[in-house]
Design a protein that fits this description.
By secondary structure, this protein is an alpha+beta fold. Helix content is 53%, strand content 12%.
């Protein structure tokens, strides 16, 4: 038989094939096109993310001030408060960047603003200006200041950034001279490991189902495709031409979906310039990969899909290998290795509470490795475990529907079951990501709400390293009982000096102090301890007080103030001075510490008010800091993880639906045979459910169980890692609903009559 002519004939056949497939397999091709849209969006988004991260780093570098040695500071030029001394906490979940400057206009220009703001002025980014209208806590940061203008894009890392440029005074000891902007070596801090972990988790969550979606969808074949391959080869078409024909058929469909995905992406980045639900955004120019990169992504997607479709054609058997019949089992050696790896990883995770006591930090690395091995082992073992379970149930089948449904999954592992096992892997990664997010968020809002219920009055230590705040100022801002601690000196001996009221000592200690006079200085005795010997000397020197020296002669004759043992142990033997005797006490740049009890419901406004008055003030909630979500240092990473986990589930479900639709149509012959033998319609539907939705549900539930074990292991070494039973329950319910939905939606295909037209229709 003569070969087909290379020109014209193949193109003509391809055109007719496409028209015919659109008529007979429009649903499959539409699903494949949707897969192409998703993968194209994924590819372009990945490129955009890389560009955005690079742009953020470059913009951050350009905004970073180049500072000189503080000893070189003069009264002219431009200076700024050392940014390393500014608080890094968030305010009501918002990360607000504040930079304080003072200058006479002769120094380098501050990016994004027209001039150096005065001491009572500030410039704000557009996003911050809008936030100040709705968030009272954030507004407290700028109380008493006037908005002088808006920061232009040249002074921002991204358009949704919450940034402010504020004025300050020359008497700030923390000022450093600014010689320019564009820090040549910005510090990356300790974020590299966190960024690497987050990047790997997001990539694993998103790309595993995305690539599987594209490849498996491209390899799906219908009865028409099998006949076509056999007929075309019999007519003399070469093997290479047949493969190209099948690859081109899929390639055209994928190309159409890819173009649509590219269009959606470019519209998206122009209209949505932030990760949904977060303050992390980007400028359109930073996120646009450009025409060349878009074409490259489209070409790669089309080539991968076409190659996958072409490789699925087996000319020798005249059939398509992918999903025309069930896929063969993995080699027994691989199955055994997978079971050994999975079992070992599970044992390690279960033993984490014990191992962490001995291995410490080493156990953490082992935990991450075990989690990955669990996911990989589940992908290998899951389908085989379902097949084994089905085989064990075959002898117990009591109806034709049970028997046929079980048999359809016992011969070999189906593509849908393989993809379902990958979705189970994604579920493991998602639950692990959620647990890791809870660590980055210090346990999350639920943990913090519980902390506030258990501790309605939060003990807070505020350190004023600049020494500008007074007791009256702090009490007015925090509206809380407060004790100020400064360092006094008796002779050459330093000693703690407490300034406050008797009732404040009582509030902080939980009981009223004994012998508190309230009119003159007294020594402090902590309950249950021996009285400390006062330092030798007749007077105490106080830094920058209105009275630089206090006479101790009368104090030594007074009984000590006895306070609760709940107060700091370093207060034993301290000197307590009633605040009304020193109403204007200041510390003149030597610093002081304020101990207070803050109402948990107004913690953030109180801290914001204090930080607004003194930007270098440092806060410490003691052990409760580990539960404070506003102390989170990685909000961007949390946003990426949340987005990646959500995308992974959406992509996985879409891909699974595509595969199930293809496989069900191929099982329709067996199901019709069951019906022709006299089985009732419910028995046919039962066989359909057992062969399609149920196996996927089982591997999904296995993924949920494994993911819970991973979160349990994480919690064993960091109690901030949430064992999110609610999320696990939602995912388990989702697996059940996915199985049921896939079964119901594919019933028409399962019962659809086969095409009996026979030959290839040109």
């Amino acid at each position: 038989m003569s070969k087909f002519a290379p020109q014209g004939t193949a193109v003509w056949i391809l055109r007719r094939v496409l028209i015919r497939d659109l008529r007979r397999a429009g649903g499959r091709l539409a699903a494949l096109a949707i897969g192409a849209v998703v993968v194209t969006l994924l590819g372009l988004s990945t490129m955009a993310a890389v560009q955005v991260i690079g742009a953020h780093q470059e913009r951050s570098r350009s905004l970073g001030a180049t500072v000189a040695d503080p000893s070189d500071r003069t009264d002219d030029g431009l200076s700024m408060v050392n940014p390393e001394l500014l608080s890094s906490r968030r305010w009501d979940g918002h990360s607000v960047t504040r930079n304080y400057f003072v200058g006479d206009g002769t120094g380098p220009a501050i990016p994004g603003v027209s001039r150096v703001p005065d001491r009572d002025e500030y410039f704000a980014s557009p996003a911050l200006s809008e936030l100040l209208k709705t968030d009272g806590s954030v507004a407290q940061l700028f109380a008493g200041r006037r908005l002088a203008g808006t920061i232009t894009p040249t002074g921002l890392i991204h358009p949704h950034e919450l940034r402010a440029v504020l004025g300050t005074e020359r008497d700030q000891w923390a000022l450093v001279p600014v010689v320019g902007f564009g820090d040549p070596a910005p510090s990356l801090g300790d974020d590299r490991l966190v960024n690497l972990t987050v990047g790997l988790l997001v990539a694993g969550c998103v790309w595993v189902p995305g690539v599987a979606f594209l490849i498996v969808g491209s390899r799906l074949a219908t009865t028409e495709r099998r006949r076509r391959a056999r007929q075309l080869h019999a007519l003399g078409m070469s093997t290479a031409t047949v493969k190209v024909l099948h690859g081109s058929e899929v390639g055209v469909t994928v190309a159409a979906g890819g173009v649509l995905g590219a269009m959606v992406f470019h519209v998206w980045i122009r209209r949505v310039t932030a990760i949904p639900g977060t303050d992390t955004g980007y400028f359109t120019a930073d996120a646009d990969p450009g025409l060349l990169a878009t074409v490259v992504v489209l070409a790669v997607v089309v080539l991968v899909a076409g190659a996958a479709a072409a490789s699925a054609v087996d000319i020798k058997s005249g059939a398509s290998r992918a999903t025309t019949r069930p896929r063969r089992q993995l080699a027994p050696s691989i199955q055994r290795a997978g079971r050994a790896v999975l079992l070992s990883a599970l044992v390690y995770l279960l033993a984490m509470p014990v191992l962490v006591q001995f291995l410490r930090e080493g156990a953490v690395f082992g935990m991450w490795l075990a989690a990955l091995l669990c996911a990989g082992g589940l992908a290998i073992v899951g389908p085989d475990a379902v097949a084994r379970t089905y085989r064990s149930l075959v002898p117990k089948a009591k109806s034709a529907g049970n028997l046929v449904g079980l048999r359809l999954q016992t011969g070999a592992t189906t593509t849908s079951l393989r993809l379902g096992s990958l979705l189970a892997v994604v579920i493991v990664l998602v639950l692990g990501a959620l647990s890791f997010i809870s660590v980055l968020e210090h346990g999350g809002q639920a943990r913090w709400a519980q902390t506030l219920r258990e501790n309605p009055q939060l003990p807070l230590v505020a350190t004023d390293i600049n020494g500008t705040l007074t007791l009256d100022t702090v009490e007015a801002a925090a509206t809380s009982p407060t004790i100020q601690t400064i360092v006094g000196r008796v002779g050459k001996t330093e000693m703690p000096v407490l300034v406050g009221r008797c009732d404040s000592l009582g509030a902080l200690g939980g009981k009223p102090p004994s012998n508190c006079d309230g009119t003159q200085p007294q020594w402090v005795l902590i309950e249950g301890r021996e009285r400390a010997t006062p330092p030798r000397g007749t007077s105490v020197n106080l830094p920058s007080a209105t009275q630089t020296s206090l006479d101790l002669s009368a104090t030594n004759q007074e009984p000590p103030v006895t306070v609760s043992d709940r107060l700091p142990t370093e207060w034993q033997g301290a000197l307590f001075i009633p605040s009304r005797t020193l109403p204007t006490l200041g510390t003149g740049g030597t610093g002081s510490t304020f101990f207070m009890l803050v109402d948990g419901s107004r913690l953030t406004p109180a801290l914001a008010a204090l930080s607004g008055q003194e930007p270098t003030i440092q806060f410490d909630l003691g052990g409760l800091t580990l539960s404070d979500p506003d102390a989170v240092q990685f909000p961007t990473q949390v946003a990426w993880l949340t987005t990646g986990a959500s995308l992974a589930l959406v992509i996985g479900v879409l891909g699974l639906f595509l595969v199930v639709v293809g496989e069900v149509r191929q099982r329709s012959a067996q199901l019709r045979g069951l019906r022709s033998l006299g089985a009732a319609r419910p028995q046919v539907l039962l066989a359909h459910a057992l062969s399609s939705g149920v196996p996927i549900t089982l591997v999904g539930l296995a993924g949920v169980s494994t993911g819970l074990l991973v979160t349990f292991a994480m919690h064993s070494f960091d109690d901030r890692a949430r064992i999110d039973l609610a999320a696990a329950a939602v995912l388990a319910l989702g697996c059940l609903l996915a199985g049921a939905t896939l079964t119901i939606l594919t019933i028409p295909n399962a019962l659809k009559q086969s095409d009996r037209s026979g030959g290839f229709q040109a």
